[in-house]
Amino acid sequence: MTEIRVPTLGESVTEATIGKWFKKPGDAVAVDEPLVELE
To answer: What ranges do the domains of the chain cover?
Structure first.
């Protein structure tokens, strides 16, 4: 399993929901390439 880091969303934000995936399982991903859209 690969670690996915999420940027700090703000002091009052404790959770986020994935709105859209930009990649499918098995797709190649480059460093710093967006994977998801968070809501």
So the answer is: 1-38
CA atoms within 13 A on the CB side of 38: 12
* Residue 29 CA: distances (Å) to CA of 3, 32, 35, 36: 12, 8, 8, 12
Rounded Cα distance, 17 and 29, in Å: 21
pTM strictly above 0.70: no
Q: Please calculate the CA angle 16-17-19 and round it to the nearest 5 degrees.
A: 135
What CA–CA distance (Å, rounded) separates 1 from 21?
A: 17
User: Is the model's pLDDT at 1 over the cut of 90?
Assistant: no
